[in-house]
């Protein structure tokens, strides 16, 4: 599979991206470079090669037959259903097509869930949405020139929530309760664990239908389905999954803050896939410790940054090329409870059941006691803990641009700054490769912690800063940064006064650290002296920055 990834010749590559090496936001190529690096690391154990070779040969033969039978586009559709990639469809894999053709959805086999308690409480959630601002997309600048109408059809037609309002039993929200070994304020845990790591790579792009959710995924899937019918609660790229943190508690209640990384597939057959990936979903739930009562529920996509959605779409029948990337601004995507959960039946003193929803009588008024927390942490602290759980690299704090330079000046350190097209702590593609490899490795963390103040910024933010005449010192620092920037990500080492002493582009960095299997594969093993080449390259980069800074400072 690795061999499929980046096998274009330079000539082919320059045909696809005539900008001559300068990769545009649309190219997507550097993502595959990162993938190549990762796959190379995975593809090594030599013993497995023989068996693997035989299997690959069989698969290749079957693949060729499939192309002859179906053509490239037909095979693309077939592969989107073939989740285990064996080039055969099982009944389970054929299910989305059967449902489409018959219009019948067989009852979902929801394990362990739906403990439907008729005496339980119910809660109503409302969904609100303001569609993505198309004019915030980079590609809107030239009127979406060269972007086919079918690519954006799912995006353009998604104007309101799929399900504006829905009722839930409060017991369903027990998925947000902490596991047995957690229960203190500040504790964090994975609600939906990530299944991605450096050795698993990424999930495929050519899928239209989310896999059947299981266990705790069911509720999250149902909630996100209120926005759009095709949520993938396991995103293709890290960060993946959902984490939660106890923000406050008392004897009866928890206030639990959560963060979810999921995405939507906006297109359906016959259009090519269009992935819509909000930076994150976050929110909180106030519920009783036995989940019998939900006081408040709120889930939303933060819209306080100028760009908060990553979009990737395919425009050809190939998984590994023909991919466009853009980012944009989504003003609102939000779920909120209309009020606390209430019982649907109540029992009077004589034990008679009174239907609280009986239209004939006066509606029953519920009075809820005010919740006083016996222990709590702030909203921001809870958010920080979630972040550290999701991204170990956050063990080193990344400060906003201006703060980083102030702090570096005060502590006589250098600024380690990452300038990127999308956001590093969002799900944006730009930070992806970096985050997953080098920034989490402990030698890099230690060096950053010891000698640098770290910061990351969006190109767009620095452009605004540069244009700000009110603050000439900051404007100059932004200018010096932008001067050295190349798409998609530039890592820089700067003096506290803004002079860039060293910088490296992410594409160049990945080229440096990717290994060709025929050159190094055979000597590379997991057991002896495993060291990630990107870690050592990044350490060298930082050390070189330190050395150059010395020269400046001792002049
Ligand atoms: C960073 O340095 C401080 C003090 O030198 C230390 O207490 C802390 O554990 C370090 N953190 C990491 C992630 O290395
Ligand atoms: C920052 O300080 C260094 C060393 O003193 C100096 O060489 C450089 O010109 C300064 N840069 C700016 C932008 O002031």
TrEMBL record:
<keyword id="KW-0472">Membrane</keyword>
<feature type="region of interest" description="Disordered">
    <location>
        <begin position="1"/>
        <end position="22"/>
    </location>
</feature>
<dbReference type="GO" id="GO:0005789">
    <property type="term" value="C:endoplasmic reticulum membrane"/>
</dbReference>
<keyword id="KW-0812">Transmembrane</keyword>
<feature type="transmembrane region" description="Helical">
    <location>
        <begin position="30"/>
        <end position="54"/>
    </location>
</feature>
<keyword id="KW-1133">Transmembrane helix</keyword>
<dbReference type="GO" id="GO:0055074">
    <property type="term" value="P:calcium ion homeostasis"/>
</dbReference>
<feature type="compositionally biased region" description="Basic and acidic residues">
    <location>
        <begin position="1"/>
        <end position="15"/>
    </location>
</feature>
<protein>
    <recommendedName>
        <fullName>EF-hand domain-containing protein</fullName>
    </recommendedName>
</protein>
<dbReference type="GO" id="GO:0048741">
    <property type="term" value="P:skeletal muscle fiber development"/>
</dbReference>
């Amino acid at each position: 599979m690795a061999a499929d990834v980046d096998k274009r010749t330079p000539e082919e590559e320059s045909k696809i991206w005539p900008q001559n090496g300068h990769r545009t936001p649309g190219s997507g190529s550097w993502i595959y470079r990162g993938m190549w690096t990762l796959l190379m690391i995975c593809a090594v154990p030599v013993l497995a090669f023989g068996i693997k070779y035989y299997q690959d040969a069989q698969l290749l033969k079957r693949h060729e037959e499939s192309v002859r039978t179906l053509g490239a586009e037909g095979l693309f559709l077939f592969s989107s259903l073939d989740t285990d990639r064996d080039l055969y469809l099982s009944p389970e894999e054929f299910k989305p097509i059967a449902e489409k053709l018959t219009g019948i959805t067989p009852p979902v086999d929801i394990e362990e869930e739906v403990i439907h308690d008729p005496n339980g409480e119910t809660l109503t959630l409302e969904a609100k949405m303001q569609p993505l601002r198309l004019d915030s997309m980079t590609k809107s600048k030239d009127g979406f020139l060269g972007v086919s109408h079918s690519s954006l059809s799912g995006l353009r037609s998604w104007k309101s929530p799929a399900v504006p309002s829905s009722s839930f039993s409060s017991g369903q929200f027990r998925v947000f309760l902490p596991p047995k070994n957690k229960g203190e304020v500040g504790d964090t845990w994975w609600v939906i664990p990530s299944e991605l790591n450096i050795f698993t790579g990424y999930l495929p792009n050519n899928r239209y239908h989310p896999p059947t959710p299981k266990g705790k995924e069911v509720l999250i899937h149902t909630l996100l389905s209120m926005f759009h019918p095709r949520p993938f609660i396991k995103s293709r790229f890290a960060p993946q999954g959902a984490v939660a943190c106890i923000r406050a508690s008392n004897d009866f209640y928890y206030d639990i803050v959560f963060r979810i990384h999921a995405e939507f597939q906006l297109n359906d057959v016959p259009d090519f896939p269009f992935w819509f990936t909000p930076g994150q979903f976050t929110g909180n739930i106030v519920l009783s410790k036995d989940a019998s009562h939900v006081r408040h529920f709120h889930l939303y996509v933060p819209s306080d940054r100028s760009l908060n959605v990553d979009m990737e779409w395919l425009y050809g029948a190939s998984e590994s090329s023909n991919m466009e990337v853009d980012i944009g601004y989504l003003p609102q995507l939000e779920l909120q409870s209309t009020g606390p959960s209430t019982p649907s039946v109540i029992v009077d003193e004589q034990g008679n059941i009174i239907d609280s929803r009986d239209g004939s009588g006066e509606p029953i008024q519920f009075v809820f006691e005010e919740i006083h927390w016996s222990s709590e942490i702030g909203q921001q602290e809870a958010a920080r803990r979630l972040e550290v759980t999701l991204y170990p690299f956050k063990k080193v704090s990344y400060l906003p641009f201006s703060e980083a330079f102030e702090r570096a000046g005060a502590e006589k350190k250098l600024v380690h700054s990452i300038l990127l097209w999308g956001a590093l702590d969002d799900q944006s593609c730009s930070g992806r490769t970096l985050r997953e490899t080098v920034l989490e490795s402990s030698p890099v963390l230690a060096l950053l912690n010891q000698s640098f103040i770290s910061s990351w910024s969006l190109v767009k933010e620095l452009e605004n800063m540069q244009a700000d005449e009110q603050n000439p010192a900051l404007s100059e620092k932004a200018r010096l940064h932008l001067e050295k920037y190349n798409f998609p990500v530039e890592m820089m080492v700067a003096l506290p006064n803004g002079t860039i002493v060293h910088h490296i582009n992410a594409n160049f960095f990945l080229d440096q650290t990717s290994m060709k299997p025929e050159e190094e594969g055979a000597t590379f093993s997991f057991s002896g002296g495993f060291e990630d080449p990107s870690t050592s390259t990044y350490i060298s980069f930082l050390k070189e920055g330190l050395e150059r800074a010395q020269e400046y400072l001792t002049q």
